[in-house]
Amino acid sequence: MSKPVVCIGAAFVDELFHTHEPILPATTNPASVSRTPGGVARNIAHQLARLDVPVQLIAAFGNDPDGEWLRQQCLNAGMRLDAALTIEGQTGRYTGILNPDGSLFTAFLTHSPVHHLTPEYLARHEALLETASHILGCANLLPESLSWLLDFSRRSTIPFIIEPVSVPPARRMAELDLDGLYLVTPNEDELPALCRKAGTSTREQVDELLQRGIRKVWLHSGANGSVIYSREGELRLAATRIEVKDCTGAGDGSVAGYLLGKTLGRDDADSLRIAHTLSAEILQVDGANVPDMDRSTLLALTPRYYP
User: Fold this and answer.
1) Does some domain include residue 107?
2) How do residues 212-226 score in pLDDT, each as one tens digit?
3) Range of the domain at 279
4) CB atoms within 10 A of CB 285
């Protein structure tokens, strides 16, 4: 059996309100609502499992009905939960308010139990981490937990990836020692939040992160595509034109697509094309996951999006 990707961090219940008309403040807005499994680390693990990549999810679930439902959804998707934690309390919930075009208007995060994934807890599962092909952590983790994982990555030489999630957790990363980090995956809002200096241009901000020892910075720019920066140069890929239904989980899906490419031994260029293809498919459905998306389907779709 091939080595698993170990995803560590948030697993939430996503409650998404899809507004039917442009949002008006301080009044009632008509909307429909959906409930899906969510959380950045969990979403990436879900996509990887659906793509036939062995995956372990280390996350914290509440011992409430939401937690039982969410845990079962993870198992049904095919991910392993050998080191998952059940806490006394409520499961985390992400509530998103979406504009009619599917873009995010605002969101709320409540009852997040991610702080239970301490360095001490992770150290107790070091044997599992040693089996990984790649380790992915979301920035919802405690900064000291991210630092512990990066130190483990340096010692074990297992590539470690951090997904910044959003601006507030990205800001907590600004003072971390990131030397040796394999990859960080910010969008245009998160990139300056990761930086210590007040760089005014994308190039200045990326250069700071590379100078701090990060090997690759993968900048997501929505409809403008994405760029992987490294000391060796830049790798750019345009986004395809599609009709967006729901933006939830598209960034997470792109990371999963990239990791699929890496587990198949593909270079960054091929992995980026797979990543963009999966992200485009997610943007065209409700929720963070595409029904019936498997490895063979994704690999067949990729040359259609990027001949």
Assistant:
1) no
2) 999 999 999 988 999
3) 5-11+40-90+112-305
4) 16
